[in-house]
Amino acid sequence: QRLGTYNLVICGMETSDSGTGHIAASLAEWLDLPQVTCVRKLEIKDCRLYAERVVEDGYQEWEATLPAVLSVTKDINTPRAMRLRSVAEAADKGITTWGVADLDLDSKLVGLAGSPTQVPRVFRTEPRKQADIIEGPAPQAVDALVARLRELRAI
Questions:
Q1: Would you say the pTM of this structure is higher than 0.70?
Q2: pLDDT per position as a tens digit, 88-132
């Protein structure tokens, strides 16, 4: 069986500067490719992508065609320990840094000036109130909870 080209773009979940998490989604939209965000497990079979995506209360299983764009969580990989010799060799290698001029880019289209998103301010919210704890047998506790929610006009 001949395997095709996979073409998979893998992004981290968030940027280190503002944590907006929009890079993978923006890139997928720009490239008109399917995307799966918050991926914790990944498998590719027969040119299809099978992923587990982290959600608030567990995970979802997703399937997508390739090419695709992913954002991955830190759980996607467990790095292996490096040998001391490899660490020493890596320390001796230089790091190539490319700037705007090296890449022939318009400086108005990159960095903060070119960003499609801005974070105008970051602040901590203050807690509104202490929690109300309702104790007692379940039927009476439910009645008390419903009464409290009605009092707050929440239901």
A1: no
A2: 898 888 889 999 999 999 999 888 888 877 778 888 888 777 778
Give the bridge partners for 26, in sequence order: none
Report the C-alpha gap between 32 and 26 in whole angstroms. 10
- Of 60, 45, 48, 53, the residue nearest 24 (C-alpha): 53
Spell out the residues 6+ positions from residue 138 whose beta carbon is closer than 8 angstroms to its own: none
> Mapped to the 3 state alphabet, what secondary structure does the chain carry?
CCCCCCCEEEEECCCCCCCCCCHHHHHHHHHCCCEEEEEEEEEEECCEEEEEEEECCEEEEEEEECCEEEEECHHHCCCCCCCHHHHHHHHHCCCCCCCCCCCCCCHHHCHHHHCCCCCCCCCCCCCCCCCCCCCCCHHHHHHHHHHHHHHCCCC
Residue 96: what are its φ and ψ, rounded to 5°? Answer: -85, 130
